[in-house]
Amino acid sequence: MSPRLRNIAAIVIFGGFALLPLLAGMLGESFLIVIATRILAFAIAALALDLILGYGGMVSFGHAAYLGIGAYAVAILQRAGITDLGLHLLAAIVAAAPFALVTGAISLRTRGVYFIMITLAFAQMAYFFFVSLSAYGGDDGVTLAARSTLLGEPLLENDRVLFYVTLGLLLAIYLLALRITQSRFGRVLTGTRENPVRMQAIGYSPFRFQLTAYVISGCLAAVAGVMLANQTEFVSPALMNWHRSGELIVMVVLGGIGNLIGAVGGAVIALLLEEFLSRFSEHWPLFFGLILIGVVLASRDGVSGLIRRIGGAK
Amino acid sequence: MTNLLLLQLLNGLQFGVLLFLIAAGLTLVFGIMDFVNLAHGVIYMIGAYLVVTFAGLTGSYGLGLLLTLPATLLIGLVLEFLIFRHLYDRSHLDQVLATFGLVMVITEAVEIIWGAAPLTVSMPEALSGSVPLIGPLRYPVFRLAIIAAGLLTALGLWLVITRTRIGMRLRAGASNRAMLSALGVDVRRLFTVIFAFGAMLAGFAGAMVAPILAVDTGMGESVLILAFVVIVIGGIGSIKGAFAGALLVGVVDTVGRVFGPILLKAVMDPSAAAQAGRTLAPMLVYILMALILAIRPAGLFGQKT
């Protein structure tokens, strides 16, 4: 996707979201805002994943773990009487960073299929950790007493405010990610994806760049977890089920790998599709799965290729 | 204490041979075709559901088991023909996506066919007792039968792989597929055979545990991920590695759950030890995996990274 096209797509998507509450107000369908907030939160996670998947070539099958870490940061701090959103976000990032650093460092010793499986296994480890946290409901999870506070006020209790805060975070993270990918750091990362040996030969240490990107990605995904916890006011290990990691990959791929705004679009498509299918049948994953298989099989160069062809660009 | 340890070691061994049956098919598919198959776990689940149905129809668990084997073999062949065949030369990402989609489809289909409530199948009469081990300790015959069946399968696999022509091709394929192909071996057909056979092994494992577990749609997931851990620990493509890894994971997981809290109690106060034990026990195998990978990135018996 050319930078021009990407900017147009970004303006259309973010502009559309910004106007959505107006539309919802006119239609009197306030649930639209609730669904849209959920989509925005997942878009943050998909964006985070695209940063390493699209630019670093790292297929992490464990990003749901960071959603869970972020969500539990909210639950645990609230229990301790700390309710500020800023502190929740900070705690989520501070908790996600060491987990990403350690598991990333081990996972990055490997390549390809190994990397996919190991990230999956580590996410499962985090999943079991939270399942065994009986103080926070274990398997059943924990219902939040209230949403996070903003500047000491319960402003987020208003769905619209929560929506706009999430949108603001997504926009900020999008701009940050864009900046990262356009920096020297981002170019080294892309170079490493293409040819790690050559990058090493010209004096870079691919491992360090990849690990840094992995940690940044994990921290950003934890931000998504904080917003998801606030949106549902409920936190449980189900949030970090491996299916969720798979869905995040689906979002990134649906939207087109490695252009950031695609991840946002992918989250929109995937979650709307889920929402749409679940109206027809409680067995919606059956149809979602069939669509997924169909799309992968139908297109020689994968889902992104199909999108590209439909889009008509190159 | 010794008795408890022995009991848990046997349980760990039983779990380990089960994991081996699942990991064996998975690792060969990985090793030879470099193919990520997330749907392997659901075939294990299908094996369990089929044995419940067949045992109900025939009135005998044994007959049910006998029917489940060709059924899962057939399912493997059909899936290979319809889906996997088209994904060999695709990226890992495409393989992950398609097989992930397949997991969703099969899980929902199973729920539609068999319902969401867990099912059970009764154990065959002849194997439902227990045998004395040492002193007052007894062990269920059925679990011993699982261990025996798993070990015999492992032995059979080992013989096939080390002593037969197809085994030779398997080993050659796992270390260099392009070379094997250049020597005139039809690698795709070889893969079809392995894939179907691997599906049958997974189905066999599912059918064997059905009487001691509740059969539900979630059973494939945890096992799939543990099978990944087994393969990563053992080294991709290595049957020997899968066997060692499976037993290691089975024993560490089972023994750790029981003895972790006991050991922790020696150094901590009991309630903290109980909580820490509960938290650490399920993570133990992943910690083990991390340690082994930190030392050997290709796994215990792995050749390539």
UniProtKB/TrEMBL annotation, chain A:
Protein topology in the membrane: Multi-pass membrane protein
GO molecular function, one term: branched-chain amino acid transmembrane transporter activity
Keyword vocabulary terms for this entry: Cell membrane, Membrane, Transmembrane, Transmembrane helix
Transmembrane segments: 7-24, 30-52, 64-81, 87-106, 113-136, 161-178, 207-228, 248-273, 285-307
Pfam annotation, one family: BPD_transp_2
Domain of life: Bacteria
PANTHER family: ABC TRANSPORTER ATP-BINDING PROTEIN, HIGH-AFFINITY BRANCHED-CHAIN AMINO ACID TRANSPORT SYSTEM PERMEASE
Name under which the protein is recorded: Branched-chain amino acid ABC transporter permease
Source taxonomy: Bacteria, Pseudomonadati, Pseudomonadota, Alphaproteobacteria, Rhodobacterales
From TrEMBL, chain B:
GO BP annotations listed: amino acid transport
Transmembrane segments: 12-31, 38-57, 63-84, 96-121, 141-161, 190-213, 219-236, 243-263, 283-302
Keywords, in A-Z order: Amino-acid transport, Cell membrane, Membrane, Transmembrane, Transmembrane helix, Transport
Gene Ontology molecular function: transmembrane transporter activity
A Pfam match: BPD_transp_2
Highest taxon, organism lineage: Bacteria
Membrane topology: Multi-pass membrane protein
Locations listed in the record: Cell membrane
CC terms in the record's Gene Ontology section: plasma membrane
Family: Belongs to the binding-protein-dependent transport system permease family. LivHM subfamily.
Name recorded for this polypeptide: Branched-chain amino acid ABC transporter permease
Organism name: Paracoccus zhejiangensis
